[in-house]
Amino acid sequence: MSEPTISIAIKMLDSDLPVPSYAHPSDAGADLHAREGLVLEPGERALVRTGIALAIPHGYVGLVHPRSGLATKHGITVVNAPGTVDAGYRGEIMVTLLNTDKREAFTINRGDRIAQLVIQKVEQAAFTQVDSLEETARGAGGFGSTGGFAAN
């Protein structure tokens, strides 16, 4: 098992829920659990509480990602993926879930794994205003300019 590289203080706002944990030793994301049960109808989104608050150290960020199994099997995703948990935030971690399935409702039960939290180091940039930018081979090409997306 990999040794943790950072310690994160956690306040359990609901002691009956599991502490976030990694399913496998090499996983990047720790599972977050639903504090309440609900039904997401097709196309519906909801803000789901997780029952935890964190003290992420300065220089790090928590990124909330969808769970691949929920996305693939049921069309459940995180609307603002990845959701950002800044180091200064001390409130309850909440996840905005969206049911992208066009036909089936999806039931979330209390305690279900709904998302995963990845902790990463971050750099803060100093933005310097300039009159022009250095030229590159790509230039301003984007949004499918390399052939991956046909824009009309």
Automatic annotation (TrEMBL):
Catalytic activity: dUTP + H2O = dUMP + diphosphate + H(+)
Biological pathway: Pyrimidine metabolism; dUMP biosynthesis; dUMP from dCTP (dUTP route): step 2/2
Pfam hit, one: dUTPase
Gene Ontology biological process terms in this record: dUMP biosynthetic process; dUTP catabolic process
First-tier enzyme category under EC: hydrolase
Assigned keywords, A-Z: Hydrolase, Magnesium, Metal-binding, Nucleotide metabolism
Co-factor(s): Mg(2+)
SUPFAM superfamilies: dUTPase-like
Domain dUTPase-like positions: 18-147
Record-level Gene Ontology MF annotations: dUTP diphosphatase activity; magnesium ion binding
EC number(s) given by UniProt: 3.6.1.23
Binding site for substrate: 67-69, 80, 84-86
Alphabetical list of CDD domains matching this protein: trimeric_dUTPase
Family annotation (PANTHER family): DEOXYURIDINE 5'-TRIPHOSPHATE NUCLEOTIDOHYDROLASE (PTHR11241:SF0)
Function per UniProt: This enzyme is involved in nucleotide metabolism: it produces dUMP, the immediate precursor of thymidine nucleotides and it decreases the intracellular concentration of dUTP so that uracil cannot be incorporated into DNA.
Recorded family membership: Belongs to the dUTPase family.
HAMAP family, per the entry: dUTPase_bact
Name the UniProt record assigns to this protein: Deoxyuridine 5'-triphosphate nucleotidohydrolase
Native source organism of the sequence: Glutamicibacter mishrai
High-level lineage: Bacteria, Bacillati, Actinomycetota, Actinomycetes, Micrococcales
